[in-house]
């Protein structure tokens, strides 16, 4: 399991936080292992605002970046990211370490909200027209994903690139464009079982590449 | 119903949030009826995929604007102390409304799909559905009060499609959702759910395949069990 987080480069407004509310600024690469984040989450569940700020600092680039990849709009992405962390604050007590990693929990919440938003904000036809043949994880859509050079990002990207083009297409339309698999089938003019198996097989390959235990 | 092999097969699209609300509700219902082993298999599959997607998020990592950090932390500061987190759903938030326009018997059969379009009044609904409904020779309207706001369904019995517009309906309390059911001879069928994030001052949703429904009922449900009716309907829009 990959337990290292991407860099979070944050420069914080001078008036952002009072000192007791946690580290005011993180300019260095932030890495954390699962146990660290679990500890932070359990402190957040106890109402520890400093721990919450640290959790945000360590994970927000992952959450915001994924949300931005789905919504492709800074304003919406900021709103959704804010909603995600408010939900994290409220529901940290419901996190169960045995069911998954903290980062997985955060991104599950974030992706669900991003998809809800994208389905709310645009009709299926709008979304279809937004999708270009080149939709692909390595594409930056004019956004500079600044941590692409980092080792874990490179490894994940390399693994994603082991998928076939058809698998990448199906997984990307579903995960990054927020389409239901029925919409993916419509979009690609292929049968539902075909879409399901492309997604399933693609994810299986991705998991196999990322870690043999997946 | 969803059988066992489907259950395993749907784990991937479920983990990617690639099911619509109704399919998701059906899947969750099937899961509850599945054996412990089947459920464990499904959960393990979903968890593994979510870990993989968490790893994949390294490729899209992007530092949010610094101002967002301040907004998030201020937002938390503005919340009441943790011990005052919301309790069980307040079923009295919705009030029964008086029946308004009467309508017709609906035709057709099949599943029900609800999509959402939020935002301003000018926000386009699923154009195909809206056009179809408004162009239908048998277009009808039913409306009523929901939680102090107003809900109107414009629909075509012939097409079995409708547009739900809610104005000034308050958001459900955190942890709770609004559930919309199509009432019919076979009992209520879940048409869709709305979380607090879904409900805007003006919320529009499309209703498909309304076959056989005689009314749309609203209940307040638990977000953790979105397809379970845990309280009596608190509002009902008659369709016939």
Overall geometry of chain B: globular
Q: Helical segment tally of chain A?
A: 9
Uncertain stretches of 5 or more adjacent residues of chain B: 83-127
Beta-strand percentage range of chain A: under 5%
Report Rg of chain A.
18 Å
Tertiary shape of chain A: globular
Structural class of chain B: alpha+beta
* SSE ordering of chain B: HHHHEHEEEEEEEE
Largest sheet of chain B: 5 strands, antiparallel
Distance between the termini of chain A: 8 Å
The major pleated sheet of chain A works out as: none
Q: Hey, roughly how much beta strand do the residues of chain B contain?
A: 15-25%
Helical content of chain A, roughly?
A: 55-70%
Termini Cα gap of chain B: 28 Å
Helix content of chain B: 25-40%
Neighbour order of strands in the largest sheet of chain B: 1-7-4-3-2
Protein name (chain A): RNA polymerase sigma factor
Pfam families (chain A): Sigma70_r2, Sigma70_r4_2
Keywords (chain A): DNA-binding, Sigma factor, Transcription, Transcription regulation
Family (chain A): Belongs to the sigma-70 factor family. ECF subfamily.
Structural write-up:
Chain A: Residues 155-206 form the RNA polymerase sigma factor 70 region 4 type domain. Chain A: Belongs to the sigma-70 factor family. ECF subfamily. Chain A: Keywords: DNA-binding, Sigma factor, Transcription, Transcription regulation. The complex is a heterodimer of chains A (214) and B (240). By secondary structure, chain A is mainly α. Chain A contains nine helices and no strands. In chain A, helix 2 packs across helix 4 and helix 8 (181-188) crosses helix 9. Chain B is an alpha+beta fold and 240 residues long. Chain B has helices at residues 4-15, 21-33, 36-56, 66-78, 127-135; strands at residues 114-118, 140-146, 149-156, 161-167, 176-183, 189-194, 202-207, 215-222, 235-238. Chain B has a five-stranded antiparallel β-sheet with strand order 1-7-4-3-2, covered by helices on one side. In chain B, a hairpin with a 5-residue loop joins strand 5 and strand 6 (189-194). Chain B is globular and about 50 Å long. The chains are: A mainly alpha (214), B alpha+beta (240). At the A-B interface, helix 2, helix 3, helix 4, helix 5 and helix 6 of A face helix 1, helix 3, helix 4 and strand 1 of B.
